[in-house]
Write a structure and sequence with these properties.
- This protein is about 80% helix and about 0% strand.
- The radius of gyration is 21 Å and the shape is elongated.
- It has a two-stranded antiparallel ribbon with strand order 1-2.
- Helix 3 packs antiparallel against helix 4, helix 4 packs antiparallel against helix 10 and helix 5 runs antiparallel to helix 6.
- It is an all-alpha fold.
Length: about 240
């Protein structure tokens, strides 16, 4: 029991994440200046952009882990892909919620088929398909191979999502920050600082949650292995 509890106690990284979240909230909601055109609704941007970055990063990790799993057939890489998909899906849902909240006052509508939004929706649907297959496909080796292939194919959406505002000048507010001098060149220094702090914080939070989810999956494997041993002993006793 002591070993099990030690796995789930708050680590130094967890403490750093909590401090970072509080700091990000302060910088975004209090310290950063009010945007002149969009007003206070723009403050959602700091968290929307940070979580969008994590949603992309998480599925890239799913794809890379899937490639290695198909190559080595090692369970640990399947665990990385599974955990990354679950944690990344949470961040992707946050993106899909904050986007319309941000867009309604700015565009006058909750949704528009802007290129960035369209590819974000595609990524969310890929997450859903991947996790549903995880949940209902069973523990067969063939299902795991199909999941790995889906994870690899799903990463094809990431370049289109990431560069959508550069390739197609849509309505997405990020288009307003993309200048020849680079992303954020037209932003005030306080805004850029708040965005960077939020991005770093959510990146650390992603890896913290990823580690916790992987530990839980490994514990599940240990329990199943122990149960199998008990069943084998029971069958031998009879």
């Amino acid at each position: 029991m002591a070993g099990t509890s030690s796995r789930f106690r708050i680590s130094p990284l967890g403490v750093i994440c909590m401090i970072g979240v509080v700091l990000s909230l302060y910088l975004a909601l209090v310290w950063a200046p009010r945007e002149r055109v969009m007003g206070d609704i723009q403050r959602i941007m700091y968290f929307h952009v940070a979580t969008a970055w994590i949603a992309e990063l998480a599925f890239v990790l799913v794809g890379l882990s899937s490639v290695i799993y198909l190559w080595l057939r090692e369970r640990r890489w399947d665990i990385v892909a599974h955990a990354s998909a679950e944690v990344g899906f949470v961040f992707c849902c946050f993106v899909m919620i904050t986007g319309p909240i941000w867009g309604k006052p700015v565009w006058g509508t909750w949704w528009t088929w802007d290129p960035r939004l369209t590819f974000s929706m595609i990524l969310w649907l890929i997450y859903v398909a991947y996790l549903m297959l995880r949940a209902y496909g069973g523990d067969l080796a063939q299902v795991k191979r199909f999941l790995a292939i889906l994870g690899i194919l799903g990463t094809l959406d990431i370049p289109f999502l990431h560069f959508a505002t550069m390739w197609w000048r849509g309505l997405h507010p990020e288009s307003l920050t993309m200048t020849p001098d680079g992303f954020g060149a037209g932003m005030e220094q306080e805004m850029l600082t708040a965005m960077l702090v939020a991005a770093v914080t959510f990146t650390l939070l992603f890896f913290y949650l990823l580690g916790r989810r992987m530990a839980l999956e490994r514990m599940k494997d240990e329990v199943e292995e122990l149960q199998e041993r008990i069943d084998n002993i029971g069958s031998l006793a009879h």
